[in-house]
Design brief:
Chain lengths: 331, 331
DNA sequence: TCTCGTCTGCCAAACGTTTGGTATGAAGGT
DNA sequence: ACCTTCATACCAAACGTTTGGCAGACGAGA
């Protein structure tokens, strides 16, 4: 920067202010000229030195359990985009499930002096990483909330409700659920929203009609097969995620039940193939990019010393052929 | 750190050396004691200040066009893991397709003084971002290579060959290709490998048998429909990605051609659902996590002043029901 | 007991910015 | 012509580490 200053015939401090566009202290013409000069010579001010001086790195940390799950990937894209829009960069660390990895990851980020951290890797048991609360770094939860802590989450309860209303509306009274893992806040909320509405309509959802499974296709298949094995023949099935739903549909097929005619099937997450399946799958669509964007905005506001409110992003149900028909009255 | 030094009754410089484990200058016992003390008081040395002094940030930059494509997500996970293993952090920026965004992203990373950059967003036209070559930051290409520049790439040519050999082996002579976008180096290589082997076997692959499409399911459907619309009835179809293949299978279904019996179908990338489709899909499996890992290792070696070689990671073909049968002799 | 060698720890400069305080010059009002 | 006011630019300290150069202490050999 000193070199640039000499080139421009100015003091470094003036150049610094000019580069940061401080119009209250530097003439507009000078700002313009310095900007030009910097561009010509490919000069990029050293963000590290600036960070040391100002105490702000303009970097946000993000904690996710995985990047290969589309849901997280979408949120991460939203985060990255919004961050860059606001002049920040995102540093993402994959924490997996091990508790130790998690604290180590937090320590790294804190050591890098990130300005704030978005925690998106929490499950039912885990709260905020201990290493994080003891540091003074501002943070919030995203995607999956934790208790009453500050967070930006998808409204999974509402999603469950929407599905229940839809199925009741089409005349279904005999329903079952393929319910995802028990320790995911996600599945808990989706299920409880669904159950609330169903119950209020006077329909029973016995424990034998809810079977838990991991998030994969094969697991959904097995879970559905189990339900059918108990002799159940529901007219509608709510699957707490699309992969599970795809697996479930295969199990139904094996029992000679045709999805979209004999049985209604609704998934969750609206992954890209859902719309293109042989029988297009109804699914709850979350705008996870928006979750990411809002999380960044809230975090920046928190960093600025404000107290942003927690937010929930409403999903919407996309009805397709798999559940678009009305229940057969005779069943 | 000064506080910690007082607490330990030592000089800051000694504490610094102790924390970094410099056994040639600090007694082991002291190292131990300081480490303990730091842990107790939750002290994390300021990486920013260290970076300013040493000129190394211990951060790597990554450029990807998107994170929502599983292929990139997998590679990113590999990068993140290997980086953290080597004491680095990864900073990922999503560049989309706009040229301007790309240079801006590079400028950000260079401004942050990352120690090196992994460029994984190149298409046929684009070389290294101009902002990158003019900076002194070490970089290499990953996933998709560019000319003879240093890179760690998946061997797409080999992937194409494997598919061709497999289909020839099963007796197919009447083949077609759903070929992905024209400007992706990926699709070019897969296609050229495939074409080489096919041609060497004396089978013709006319221009009317290759139709390009974007990477999505719907696009694959349309492309396949176009082929069929021309009156072609190939006994085998190679789809340059799994989404395309899923779309293509629907088009085949519409023409009363059953995948796995009337026509063989092979995809690329082996996404998780491929194994679980009604007719499990044969697909070329890339270990993209490995690509990410190797990219990190090569980059670190480059940073250390060595000259690592370019590398290719070999994929393998996973044969499933969609192409496991032998071609019907009468066709 | 003296000297030499080795191990350990201290001092201070430097990394490249930012920013409050202050000086200089020009313009405008009386 | 003189004073005030405003706009613009300069000086220097500080952010928290790292690291080469030295000094002090301790033990061993003669």
């Amino acid at each position: 920067m000193t070199q640039l200053a000499q080139l421009a015939g100015l003091d470094v401090s003036t150049v610094s202010r000019a580069l940061r566009g401080d119009r209250s202290r530097v003439a507009s013409a000078t700002i313009e000229r310095v900007g030009q000069l910097a561009a010509e010579h490919g000069f990029q001010p050293d963000a590290v030195a600036a960070a040391l001086r100002t105490g702000r790195t303009k970097v946000l940390g993000v904690l996710v359990p995985t990047m290969t799950d589309v849901a997280y990937a979408q949120m991460l894209e939203g985060i990255a985009q919004q961050a860059s829009l606001r002049g920040y960069l995102a540093m993402t660390t994959v924490t997996g499930s091990a508790r130790r990895t998690r604290n180590a990851a937090v320590a790294s980020l804190v050591g890098q002096r990130v300005d704030g951290i978005i925690v998106a890797d929490s499950t039912v048991g885990s709260g905020a990483p201990t290493a994080l609360v003891s540091s003074a770094t501002p943070f919030l939860f995203a995607l999956r909330g934790v208790g009453h802590q500050l967070g930006v989450v998808a409204d999974d309860t509402l999603g469950g409700r929407l599905v229940a209303e839809h199925l009741l509306d089409r005349g279904h009274r005999d329903v079952a659920v393929v319910a995802g893992p028990t320790n995911a806040t996600t599945s808990r909320r989706r299920l409880s929203g669904f159950r609330d509405v169903i119950r209020r309509a006077g329909v029973e959802l016995g424990a034998d009609r809810v079977v838990h499974a991991d998030w994969g296709v094969a697991e959904g298949h097995a879970a559905m097969a189990e339900l059918l094995g108990h002799g159940l023949r529901p007219t509608a099935v709510f699957s707490l995620n699309d992969y599970n739903a795809i697996g479930a549909s295969r199990a139904l097929q094996n029992s000679a039940l045709e999805v979209g005619r004999d049985v209604a099937l609704v998934g969750y997450n609206d992954i890209s193939i859902s719309a293109e399946l042989p029988v297009p799958l109804s699914s709850v669509h979350n705008n996870l990019e928006t979750v990411g964007r809002l999380a960044v905005d809230s975090l920046l506001s928190l960093i600025d010393g404000h107290e942003p409110p927690s937010q929930t992003v409403a999903p919407r149900l996309i009805v397709r052929e798999s559940s678009g028909f009305s229940a057969h009255p005779q069943r």
